[in-house]
Amino acid sequence: MPKQLLLIWAIICSGIITYLCLTNSSNIPAIDFPSIDKIVHFCFHFGFTISWILFFKKELKGQHANDYKAYLISFIFSVFFGITIEILQGVLTTTRTPDVTDVLANTIGATAGVFSAIGFRKLIDKIIGI
């Protein structure tokens, strides 16, 4: 898979997450399910981290030592992205507020993404062609 396609995919995922996290919350249907907000944050950052791992693994050419760089860069990027989104919710929106437990859910999702990518490293390498 070409790295440009992986980059475009990661940027699209990032954009969708940004939009959904910063849009007026009244535009999003309410779902009555306990802790749904935290589950959504977990899933967003799980997917965000995986998508950036795919790109960085391809960018770094799949060398074993560079695999861990891809995991680390993607994890750090996900955590800082999540913190930034929470700050922007407080600054740019009137219907959302920053929440430290959202940052925790984001971080847990990013961690799960890294460990999943490590666990499925051979499959991921085959999919992205390294």
From TrEMBL:
<feature type="transmembrane region" description="Helical">
    <location>
        <begin position="103"/>
        <end position="124"/>
    </location>
</feature>
<feature type="transmembrane region" description="Helical">
    <location>
        <begin position="68"/>
        <end position="91"/>
    </location>
</feature>
<feature type="transmembrane region" description="Helical">
    <location>
        <begin position="39"/>
        <end position="56"/>
    </location>
</feature>
<feature type="domain" description="VanZ-like">
    <location>
        <begin position="33"/>
        <end position="118"/>
    </location>
</feature>
<protein>
    <recommendedName>
        <fullName>VanZ-like domain-containing protein</fullName>
    </recommendedName>
</protein>
<keyword id="KW-0472">Membrane</keyword>
<keyword id="KW-0812">Transmembrane</keyword>
<dbReference type="Pfam" id="PF04892">
    <property type="entry name" value="VanZ"/>
</dbReference>
<dbReference type="InterPro" id="IPR006976">
    <property type="entry name" value="VanZ-like"/>
</dbReference>
<keyword id="KW-1133">Transmembrane helix</keyword>
